[in-house]
Design goal:
Layout: E1 4-9, H1 13-24, E2 29-32, E3 44-47, E4 50-53, E5 59-60, H2 63-71, E6 82-85, E7 89-92, E8 98-101, H3 105-115, H4 120-141, H5 149-158, H6 166-170, H7 173-177, H8 184-189, H9 211-214, E9 219-222, H10 228-238, E10 243-245, E11 250-256, E12 259-265, E13 270-278, H11 282-290, H12 297-304, E14 314-319, E15 329-332, H13 336-346, E16 357-361, H14 363-366, E17 376-384, H15 395-414, E18 422-428, H16 430-437, E19 469-471, H17 482-499
Parallel strand pairs: 1-2, 1-13, 2-10, 7-15, 13-19
Antiparallel strand pairs: 3-4, 5-9, 6-9, 7-8, 11-12, 12-13, 14-17, 14-18, 15-16, 16-17
Helix pairs in contact: 1-10, 1-17, 2-17
Bound molecules: flavin-adenine dinucleotide (FAD).
Length: 504
């Protein structure tokens, strides 16, 4: 008899969601996490009294989260206190133009009317149609398995008006948002969200062009830091007997006759399981944990054709004063052409861009308890995307320089005089990210997400190549993101329930 019904490898959002729901379904479930902290990219660490988020800085589209708790018969609000953030963001151009976008769509319309009167009519049309579509599509697509054409067709048959969404899957992000804006700065302010899915506007799926609108449905920050989300999911699961072990690194899966039988930990011990759910990067799952020798040739080729997602250097800053910002998120970037150029001329050529997109997060605006009294924190994606290669291990050598450069830019574009109030400066390079989470090359969203790597083109939640193997999290459809990784966790738990002939 196996030690566990299900072993989940990785306590990221996908892993914990799958684990908790499996426990809720009566399966003896163990989650193994190599780090001492749960949550993966959606987590928080303490440093001298400052509580910095590892990566994710807000959550929007909270329905999958609510759904995960509902599936356990729980209320999300009993586990996670989501505080609304309004405005959505403040936008700063390199020339110093600033504007701020509130949640309220009517107020946003007024801002557009003032800043880009030539775009007003197009924006209103885009906004009205987009809001309707989001509402409709949310119901249809949330936590829906889209792993085959026939499953996607079933969704279309059940929600026939979803066909109106098709153009968004066929177009890129830039094509979608140019429907709304010609004004350079307004267009840029709805284009940078393409990087939220890990691709520049000309490569990102058009479906992510809707993020600019979906944010008007609300963006939220959990009290206690982003770790409050995975912790809430874990605690709900523990109520059903879920076991979670941190500091437990899995070295490989036990595979016999193309079926997974358990995992081998780095201390040499083996844990057997009826099935394993991997929350790791999909390439790592197959090429390292399962191993090429255990894969059919077609699967090896298919898996090798995926690329890792882009890395992002992060800057974590402590300040002894309240920063002169006016939103949880401040974005500093140039035009949409500039964003595409950063990808083509710098990132893909292995060069660090001079100035690219920076996303400054100010968590203490929403939850002051994250810093000592009177102090604030900023966590900052700085000049992203910046490549892992060819620097590799040499990222260690330029870390201090990168931190200095980041502070210089913070002062230049957003917060003059910030250096005089600096009490803490930590830099997390792509190499640090790789070391912390074992994400190859520091990739932040598992696998690269462009128009050709979503739905049935992304890695499946139930492996086709290896029996008893499931995948959960950012490497599966819909890719990286807090709600999407949770949704993937729900889909995977459903698959396991089906295969184990449980109610789900
Ligand atoms: C810088 C950054 C900013 C982001 N901003 C946002 C945002 O604002 N909003 C949003 O919605 N999303 C954001 N995201 C994306 C979101 O955080 C992630 O897509 C999501 O959290 C990924 O969840 P996951 O389930 O794929 O697991 P991951 O977070 O990838 O976790 C995987 C876990 O597996 C563990 N692990 C790895 N190898 C092993 C091993 N061998 N043995 C055991 N355990 C192992 C890791 O330590 C990790 O804990 C951001 C991500 C980053 C990095």
């Amino acid at each position: 008899m196996a030690d566990y019904d299900i072993v989940v490898v990785g306590a990221g959002l996908g892993g914990l969601t799958t684990g908790s729901l499996c426990a809720r379904n009566g399966l003896k479930t163990l989650v193994l996490e190599q780090s001492d902290i749960i949550g993966g990219c959606c987590s928080t660490f303490e440093h001298d009294g400052y509580h910095f988020d590892v990566g994710a800085s807000i959550v929007e589209l909270v329905r999958p989260l609510e759904m995960a708790f509902e599936r356990m018969g729980k209320n999300m609000s009993d586990y996670v206190d989501l505080v609304p953030c309004d405005p959505i963001y403040s936008f700063i151009t390199p020339e110093g133009n600033r504007f701020t976008i509130p949640i309220d769509i009517e107020e946003t319309n007024e801002i557009v009317k003032k800043m880009a009167p030539e775009d007003y009519d197009n924006w209103i049309k885009f906004e009205e149609f987009g809001m309707w579509l989001l509402d409709y599509a949310m119901e249809a697509l949330i936590a829906t398995d889209m792993s085959t054409f026939s499953r996607a067709l079933k969704v279309v048959l059940k929600y026939p008006k979803i066909y109106k969404m098709l153009p968004y899957f066929l177009k890129n992000h830039e094509m979608v948002v140019t429907k709304a804006f010609a004004n350079r700065d307004m267009l840029a302010s709805v284009s940078f969200q393409s990087f939220f899915a890990g691709a520049p506007p000309y490569l990102g799926s058009g479906i992510f062009g809707m993020i600019a609108l979906s944010e008007h449905l609300g963006i939220f920050y959990p009290r206690g830091g982003m770790i409050a989300i995975p912790r809430g999911i874990m605690e709900a699961g523990q109520g059903f007997g879920l076991e979670v072990r941190t500091g437990a690194k899995v070295d490989r899966f036990v595979v016999e006759d193309r079926a997974v039988k358990g995992v081998v930990l780095s201390d040499g011990s083996t844990i057997t399981a009826r099935a394993v759910a991997s929350n790791l990067n999909g390439r790592v799952t197959y090429l390292k944990m399962v191993g090429p020798d255990n894969l059919p040739n077609w699967a090896f080729k298919a898996v090798s054709s995926y690329f890792n997602s882009m890395p992002c250097p992060m800057i974590y800053v402590g300040l002894d004063t309240r920063p002169d910002l006016n939103a949880h998120h401040t974005i500093v970037t140039g035009s949409v052409e500039f964003m595409n150029e950063v990808w083509d001329k710098y990132y893909t050529k292995g060069l660090i861009p001079e100035n690219a997109m920076s996303l400054i997060c100010w968590p203490t605006e929403t939850d002051p308890s994250l810093a000592p009294d009177g102090h604030h924190i900023l966590s900052w994606i700085c000049n992203a995307p910046a490549p892992y290669s060819p620097l590799g291990e040499n990222w260690d050598l330029i870390k201090d320089w990168y931190g200095e450069k980041a502070i210089g830019e913070l002062e230049r574009y957003a917060l003059p005089g910030a250096r005089d109030h600096l009490t803490k400066l930590l830099v997390s390079t792509p190499l640090d990210f790789e070391r912390r989470l074992l994400h190859p090359e520091g990739g932040i969203y598992g696998l690269f997400s462009d128009m050709t790597s979503l739905a049935m083109f992304r890695m499946r939640n139930r492996s086709l190549a290896v029996k008893n193997l499931y995948l959960t999290g950012a490497s599966t459809h819909f890719g990286g993101g807090v709600p999407t990784s949770v949704a993937s966790g729900v889909v995977t738990a459903d698959k396991i329930a089906q295969d184990f002939k449980l109610q789900g």
